[in-house]
């Protein structure tokens, strides 16, 4: 896991340096610094579109689970007990029956 994080960090660092060098050359060639604003605006637009698509996908899959009754997919941390119908969290012990707390 740490190897992939180090690899991602190295690739991001190199990409940032190369990108900065290319943008400086492009600004010097065009003579306009407004290129940075257009790049930032386009990145904002792309990230907004991706976020909207992801949210709609989550909403539609959640609605599909409610229609089909498939509730096992909602959370792997909660498990319904067949004895009393109460939900319990994995790894957390239930209190003893009949013992006052």
TrEMBL record:
Organism domain of life: Eukaryota
Region (Disordered) residue spans: 71-101
Keywords of the record: Membrane, Transmembrane, Transmembrane helix
Transmembrane segments: 6-23, 35-60
Protein name: Uncharacterized protein
Record organism: Paspalum notatum var. saurae
